[in-house]
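Need residues for this backbone.
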C-alpha cells in the first residue's frame, strides 16, 4: 500500500524530498514526508491544503525544535516504519505509520511515535500542528469500550477539506492542548524522560477532501475503532 521514494532515487532533488511515502487510491496520492531534522514530518495532500506537521517543540533556532534525521526505513504490510536515531539531539524517535483506511477522498492514518533518550535529564516534546482553518474540539465516548476520546477538527474554507485528530485514553491525559480558533496544536510527551525508557503516542489523523467533510456519526465510529485497536507493542 505504501510506495516510498528514498534517498537513492532522489539525489538530484531538494533535500526536503529525500524520504517521501505515498498512499495511492484511484489515482489520488496521500503523502507523508518523513525526512526529520529541519524539515520535520508531514502528513497531507500534495496540494498542501490538508496538512499536519510534526516537529520538536522548542525555541526556533535553538536546536530543541528539531527532530532527529531519518535513517533506516522499511515497509511491512500496511505500515511504513522509520528510524530517527539520536545523534547530537536530545532523543531518538521511531515512527510507524499505519494506513487504517483510504479512498480517493479520505485517508485515515495511525502514526505511532516511540521516543527514547540516552541522556540523564531531558523532556522531549513533539508538536503536532495543522493551521489555517476553523478549529473545533470535543470529547466523544466510545460506544464499545466507554472510553473517552478527545477529537480536534479543522475545517478549511471553500470546501478545501477537513482534518480530524483523535487521541484515545492512552494519550489524551499526557497531551498539552495549545490549539486556537484557527490552529490545532498538540504537544505530545513533554514530561521527564528517564534514560532507556520508551514512551509512545498514537493519534489517529483523518485527512478528508470531500465536500461533505467528516460527519458526526463517522467521527463516533472512528473514536470507537481507535479504542478497540491495541497500541502496537513493537516497532
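Answer:
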Amino acid at each position: 500500500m505504501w510506495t516510498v521514494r528514498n534517498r537513492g532515487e532522489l539525489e538530484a532533488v531538494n533535500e526536503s524530498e529525500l524520504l517521501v511515502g505515498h498512499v495511492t487510491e484511484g489515482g489520488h496520492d496521500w503523502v507523508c514526508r518523513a525526512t526529520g531534522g529541519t524539515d520535520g514530518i508531514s502528513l497531507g495532500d500534495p496540494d498542501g491544503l490538508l496538512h499536519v506537521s510534526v516537529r520538536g517543540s522548542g525555541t526556533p533556532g535553538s536546536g530543541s525544535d528539531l527532530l532527529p534525521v531519518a535513517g533506516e526505513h522499511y515497509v511491512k504490510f500496511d505500515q511504513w516504519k522509520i528510524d530517527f536515531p539520536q545523534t547530537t539531539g536530545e532523543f531518538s524517535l521511531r515512527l510507524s505509520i499505519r494506513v487504517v483506511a483510504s479512498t480517493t477522498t479520505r485517508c485515515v492514518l495511525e502514526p505511532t511515535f516511540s521516543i527514547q533518550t540516552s541522556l540523564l535529564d531531558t523532556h522531549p516534546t513533539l508538536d503536532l500542528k495543522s493551521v489555517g482553518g476553523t478549529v473545533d474540539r470535543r470529547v466523544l465516548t466510545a460506544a464499545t469500550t466507554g472510553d473517552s476520546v478527545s477529537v480536534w477538527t479543522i475545517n478549511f474554507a471553500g470546501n478545501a477539506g477537513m482534518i480530524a485528530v483523535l487521541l484515545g485514553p492512552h494519550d489524551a491525559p499526557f497531551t498539552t492542548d495549545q490549539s486556537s480558533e484557527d490552529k490545532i496544536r498538540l504537544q505530545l510527551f513533554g514530561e521527564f524522560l528517564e534514560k532507556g525508557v520508551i514512551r509512545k503516542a498514537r493519534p489517529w489523523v483523518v485527512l478528508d477532501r470531500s465536500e461533505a467533510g467528516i460527519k458526526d456519526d463517522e467521527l463516533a465510529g472512528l473514536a470507537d475503532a481507535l479504542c478497540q485497536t491495541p497500541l502496537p507493542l513493537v516497532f
